[in-house]
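The record is kept unedited without comment:

——
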Amino acid sequence: MNSQTYNQAVLELALAGLADLTASAQTKKAQRTSAQESHFLCNWMVESLKEKRFSKLVADDLTAWIRLARSQGAGAELKRLLERIVHQYQTVETSEQALGTALNAMIVTLKQAEWLVFTDTEISAKLKLDGDGQSSLVIDAKEFNQHIKDNQLVKPINLYVRADEQTLTRIALSHGLLLSQGNKKTSLVKHHKTYQIFPHNQQPALCQLLA
């Protein structure tokens, strides 16, 4: 029996949550407010966690979302969160483009949008890029050349990016790529965040989501 991937687990959870929310609303035969939807989904997540309904891979996500809902109420926008997850994970699920090809296509798009893009420098220590505020992407030359074989991504690649996060995420998704959540601490390029892409888009944790 094949073990479930994180992508499969989080998509299963999101689809189930939305389906149960819809079924509950139909039973009540009344339009729910955002606060009522969040309250339902928070309770649903608590029960799901208690019953171990979903994979351990998403247990930390459930815990974090429950905490968020309890502190923010309707502001947690749990329904919207699940809808965003479904949209992004289903989008890449149906994409047939090889991820090496997808990354190169994304780079072309960024250059056309006048981003600074560097893929020819080996990065082994902290670097500084003087981009005068221009959006920029830096990829270690060794990773760029060795982690793509026959247009397929065979090992994770770090993307060092300084740009609007939502713009980056939207462009990546348009090319069938999921990005890890940005991390300033691990970046080897000053004023840039590290994002990662993984073979087959199999991120080990929740990807960077569109708003």
